[in-house]
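Posted in: Protein Modeling Q&A

I'm a second-year student putting together a small comparison for a lab meeting, and my supervisor asked me to include a predicted structure for Cytokinin riboside 5'-monophosphate phosphoribohydrolase. I've never done this before, so apologies if this is the wrong subforum. The sequence is pasted below exactly as I got it from our records. If anyone can share the structure token output, I'd also love a short note on what stands out.
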Amino acid sequence: MTIQSVCLFCGSNKGTRAAYEQAAVELGRTLAQRDIALVYGGGNVGLMGAAADAALAAGGRVIGVIPGFLREKELAHQGLSELHVTQTMHERKALMEDLSGGFVALPGGFGTYDELFEMLTWGQLSVHSKPIGLLNVDGFFDPLLAMIRHGVAEGFVAEGNLQLFVVAATIDELLVRMNAYRPAPVNKWLSHDRI
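Accepted answer (user: helix_wrangler)
Welcome! Here is the predicted structure, written out as tokens:
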């Protein structure tokens, strides 16, 4: 499998560690150098803006997807290859999924968690079979991974669902794992139009 576009979920803030912004810049640059389109939330601030700017500076294709009511609030990026404006957050996530061959989460807040878990849930339900990667910058996702393992131990998350995503500390390793991803067969009856 060769991923041609990656949807990035990450903070609209830069966080407290310089490593977070460095990872966003490196990811944007790496995707551009590998001719992988970057799909993201369309903003020009925080880690989102850093990744988009780095990809554009390296000659990459960057596609933003932003709901109209957030266009001004998030300061929509004006220099993108494409900017799609949706009516709702739900339409935003559906379009981002449709435009992407895989998903990467960098550090972020509630919006990042929401987008990540929606794609994990859609993967669990076989709505999509695309790779999902967590770039674990400075161990940012360690508490989240512990919570997910706790959900398995307590009987709320099937152990097989741990195979829905890959985790790596470096971009190169993450992209290798995502390209090697093969979805486990799941017997579900849902399709994208039924969610």
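A couple of things worth pointing out for your meeting: The first helix runs from residue 18 to 33. The mean pLDDT is 93.
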